Fold each of these.
Amino acid sequence: GENVEQHPSTLSVQEGDSAVIKCTYSDSASNYFPWYKQELGKRPQLIIDIRSNVGEKKDQRIAVTLNKTAKHFSLHITETQPEDSAVYFCAASRGSSASKIIFGSGTRLSIRP
Amino acid sequence: DVKVTQSSRYLVKRTGEKVFLECVQDMDHENMFWYRQDPGLGLRLIYFSYDVKMKEKGDIPEGYSVSREKKERFSLILESASTNQTSMYLCASRSPAQGVNTEAFFGQGTRLTVV
């Protein structure tokens, strides 16, 4: 079945440094790749997404890259701040109105002051 | 603002009980999902409904069933609760726009403890 693998499971970076989280997916029919952030005690919320017709997307300090050939996609956070501390989930989904969303296992990101 | 509301924030049930978790969304979304969240395992899909009365099994459907009689409501049923179903349960919904996948919105979660 469809599978999304996410690495690393935990990540600690110095405030101001960059953080990178990587995911791979198994279903070659996937064409939508969202990233969710879950702060402690809160619900997951979408922070950025990318579709298969583009290779990169940026939103201020956050960027996502996609390599469809290798079935890899990554989240890049630059100039990290304390409020970036959270659990991040990648996900993959096919392009139909009846598609599941399959999530990775999550990355706990900690920002050291 | 999209609102996805789960009926309980915390729930404690006894082994063998039949448990109902309810989720309601107010944005006329076609797709609704039930996930369970466990440390180190991420969000695992239990069941998915792409429209009223339509459902599909996810990765871990054993011990669960679902009901979607109305578009706004998606219920998760634990037929006979067991201690290994102690977990955080998250409901989500979304509305695919012309077959294009869009953002899913999550409920606040139900922390279920089976004793």
Amino acid sequence: GAGVSQTPSNKVTEKGKYVELRCDPISGHTALYWYRQSLGQGPEFLIYFQGTGAADDSGLPNDRFFAVRPEGSVSTLKIQRTERGDSAVYLCASSLSVGQGTDTQYFGPGTRLTVL
Amino acid sequence: RKEVEQDPGPFNVPEGATVAFNCTYSNSASQSFFWYRQDCRKEPKLLMSVYSSGNEDGRFTAQLNRASQYISLLIRDSKLSDSATYLCVVNSKAGSYQLTFGKGTKLSVIP
């Protein structure tokens, strides 16, 4: 079946611009996660959705970052006034349910964001 | 201290070798443990979950020592296709969904 998809696969933008990154989770998965992976590092948690609501946004680095999931399926990560330090691969994952941390999270291919 | 620490690597091993990766975690309340595999410029994929009793999947064996907060992965009879970065992953809070990843250890299996 179809896995998690993310668009665009690559995004190059200029410092100060606004970007949106999209994630389509696996059909039927209620939980959706955003992570960010910088070069040479493991992914770092940003935000988690259960259904339409952001259940935990403690990983968002600052108020320039915002994410929505209005219909409980597709999610958009929004970054305002981008900075060079925002350059990274943004990974989206989904899981069937929240469970107790044991549900397998399936990752999408990521969006590689480059801020010039 | 980082929440999840791994051997820095890289590990360069010949085909057929046995290789072991080690990982320690700082949060004693962590409940779930995993090894993920990540190929170059690809997304992480679950390799295996790690249980207290230890578990094996073909050539891969994972062990967990809760007292020492230590996780290991053993790969026997390495194949060229095993070349990847191996990420040690812990759920960072009890009953949590947040995954905390180590930096990963790069493995290159050489012909």
